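Hi R.,

Here's the chain you asked about this morning:
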Amino acid sequence: MNQSTAKLCIEVYSDVICPWCYVGKRRLERALKERRDDVPVDVKWRPFQLNPTMPKNGMDRTVYLETKFGSLNVFGEMEQRLLEAGKTEQISFAFQKIMRTPNTFLAHRLIWHAGTNGRQDAVVEQLFKGYFEEGLDIGSISILVELADRAGLKVNEFLTSEEGIAEVKAEESVGHKLGIRGVPYFILNGAYGISGAQPADVFVSAIEKARISPITADRSRNPGGK
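And here is the predicted structure, written out as tokens:
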């Protein structure tokens, strides 16, 4: 098959409690609309836990922020940048509604499962929206069931099983072996790496390069985003 007409594969390493990952999703979507070709695109969401040692039931949001950033004032500065980015990308961040920071492994299992059912992007969208715009506890099975249902997926039995545990751990391990240390991180056609929630035009340029000449990736850069 001619490479210029082959399907474009974009792998997105992200965590659903990462606000810049939500922004990055919007910017990628905008770039895909702005590109100048009609090559089919397959976006795959890969797991990356920002807090792999988080207690299973999560922790109080204020305690988490003070522990992670040293003070709420430091996060406040980042919050302002995120609110501005959110307005541009039509994201209604409502950080004041978030009471708990969850353990996200169960959510990543849900995303993996959604991928096997052709509903992955829809589920990721509902997880981001539920957490950042509604303040829902996405570490809760009942909340995950509700959000999956919004995305057209029934997951009651899956979430109480052990299915997908090994697969999610394996996918996350691949990301660490690639040298990814932060998210969002985008890999195009297994070759080109984009670190952070870059502007849409950066994605458009990288997509064009990956589509025409998928050579090698520069993964030596430290991925951006928090």
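One quick note: The radius of gyration is 17 Å.

Cheers,
M.
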